[in-house]
Amino acid sequence: MLRQQILVVKQRIEAAYGHEAEWQKLIFAGKILVDDQTVESYNITERDFLVLMVRKVRPHRPILARTRLWSAMLQLVGG
Q1: Confidence at residue 33, expressed as pLDDT on a 0 to 100 scale
Q2: What is the pTM of this model?
Q3: Strand pairing report for 51-54 and 31-32
Q4: Residues 52, 24: contact at Cβ < 8 Å?
C-alpha cells in the first residue's frame, strides 16, 4: 500500500464509493497530494488522517443552448 501512487488510491476510492478519481483531492498535513507521487513519499502511515474533497460536477450546458437562450432573451427585451 505504501508504494502505491496517489492516483491508485483515488481509483480505489472511486471503485468503493463511486467518486470519480479526477474529481478527488486528497489532502494530508495541509498539502494536496499529487497523483504521480507515492503514499510513502508523503510519509503517510496507517494511523494518519487524510481529507478527501470531491468536486461537485456541474451539469453540462451546450453552447448552442446558451446561444439560443441569449437570442430569445434579446428578442424579449427588443435588442
Answers
A1: 96
A2: 0.69
A3: unpaired
A4: yes
